[in-house]
Amino acid sequence: MIASITRGDRTRGVLAYVYGPGDEDEHTDQHTVASFEPFLPDPGRDPDFDAAVAQLTDILDLRVVQAGKRAPKEHVWHCSLRAAPEDRHLSDSEWEQVARRVMAAAGIAPEGDPDGCRWVVVRHAEDHVHIVATTVRANLTHARLHNDYRRVMDELAVIERDFGLREVDHRPGRGTMAKAPTRAEVHKAKRQGRERTPRETLRIALRTALAGAVSEDEFLARVQAEGVRVKVRRLPSGDAQGFSFHLPGDHNRKGEPVWFPGSELGPDLTLPKIRARLAAGADEPAVKGADTAGPALAETAGAVRAVLHAFTATSGDGEAGGGTGGVEPMVDASVVVAWSAGFGEVLDAVAQTHMGPGRAELRAAARAWGRAAFAHERAADRELRALRSAARQTLSGGASLGRGKDADPVMMLLDLVLLLGIALYRWHEAEGHRQHARTAHKTVAHLEVAASQAATVPLRTLAAESRSVPSPVRQTLATTVRQVLPPDLAERVVTGKNWPALAGALLQAGHRGLDVTGLLTASAGERELDSAQDPAAVLLWRVRHLADLPPVTPAVGRAKARKPAPAEQPRPGQSMVPGQPPRPRGR
């Protein structure tokens, strides 16, 4: 359950909104759920709406008027409480219980306190209610609201468990989720025909510009290249104090441009946090030729693989063949935060440069991850540097991934990125970081779809090429798989739709003199396979990468698609089945 608490000085204005039709007639069945005393006016169900609002305003404001100059300037306490989309709809009685507990925690109306503030609870939707209270008590003192938001969050954590609702991470000190757009910003974006609010668009632009950047000048140049205007706030000494950002076309009611300081876009987008990220460094890429995709992908994959191996070393997870893949919270938190930040930069870089199938899902994955803010500690610079360098290297290849003969390295990279996303998800979940775990879960879901879409064409080509592999050879290779992998996983592999393509790759590797058993063992040891929807496809890309097989060349046109390429033929005297003795030459 999420709470939003604001203060104001217009009791009537808040009541008119919560009981009214809403900005776009979105409010339905507006009515009072509970109030500090029964039989108050209910503007939502009173034919004379304006008169009822005026009367209710006078009742709630009575102590404010009596306090006179001693009343606080912002005497209205407004709290909206919203359940999660997957939560059941609470009844009015249940919402009243929740609201009373929230007000008691905040200090508005402590239980059993005869001098509590005046309040009313209004419902105009299935999933949320509004509490409107005035903060002068019956004895004309002010309500003690210091740290009210924190106390409300703590009480909501208990309420969620008591009512069986989705538990949100309310623990203090997190503060690492980007601020959500306000209701007014969402409606404004709809009116302007924008897919996202300016706040979200700016956050995405800034995080994208940070990927692999090595200096403030480079970062700002990238931001401005996206069409974002930048304003530098300076100290009297002339040094930069902070940045503000404006999305062209975003103006307030007076027609003035709306500027967002970095802190309003994300906790990690303040100038000190940006400088800390840049200070972690990213090695300048060497000058490369036109064909940069291969080296860039190799370096990125290597950096991601190193992080995965570090997870394995510190958690004891990732033995060959899989297992549950759970990551125990044994890794230093600052290191994982650095990995999380670097993972986001790699995602941004891959999403920017991948032009093939799965591009939209990769961008959605990057946006999902970007909702969390990972501001690393300087002590973890080393962990962040390699991933930042990999992101920069990927960007140096240009927007070309998925277009040429790079299916193998692209799929290998997507496999590793997906595995790192799973590892980070499990770590945050084990640590109890529920918001971050949900963010990571959404990211992983998008990555799985992206990998599936990117693999469609090359898998079709490899399936066609594998048709010429004799059935006895496949059976022998299946036996090898069953010897290497756990029984359940082995059966999923050899009965999967992509098993023929994997068998073809293993046969090619065997004809090149490679040990098929060792190749399978190494491929399975890259990290767990149990969570893979299609473990045969995952092993296929790992085997092709480790065996350095020729790149996949998709057939062009229907005529070529009808004629599958023959599997690599053995040399004279070489067995068709790897591991079997050579056949005698001649008849």
Keywords, separated by commas or semicolons:
587 residues; alpha+beta; 4 domains; 3-stranded antiparallel sheet; 22 helices; 8 strands; 50% helix; elongated; disordered C terminus
How much strand content do the residues show?
5-15%
One letter per element, helices H and strands E, the order comes to EHEHHEHEEHHHHEEEHHHHHHHHHHHHHH
Helix content: 40-55%
Low-confidence stretches: 171-175, 316-329, 556-587
Integer count of domains: 4
Structural class designation = alpha+beta
Alpha-carbon distance between the two ends? 78 Å
What does the average pLDDT come to? 81
Total strands: the figure is 8
Count of runs of 4 or more consecutive helical residues: 22
Polypeptide structure, described:
By secondary structure, the chain is of the alpha+beta class. It has 4 domains: 2-163; 183-279, no CATH class; 293-462; 468-562, no CATH class. Helix content is 50%, strand content 8%. The protein has helices at residues 11-19, 49-60, 62-67, 92-106, 148-163, 183-191, 198-210, 216-225, 262-265, 271-279, 293-315, 333-353, 359-370, 381-396, 407-431, 434-465, 471-484, 487-494, 499-511, 516-524, 535-547, 557-562, and strands at 2-8, 31-35, 76-82, 118-123, 128-134, 229-234, 240-246, 260-261. The termini are far apart. The relative contact order is 0.07.
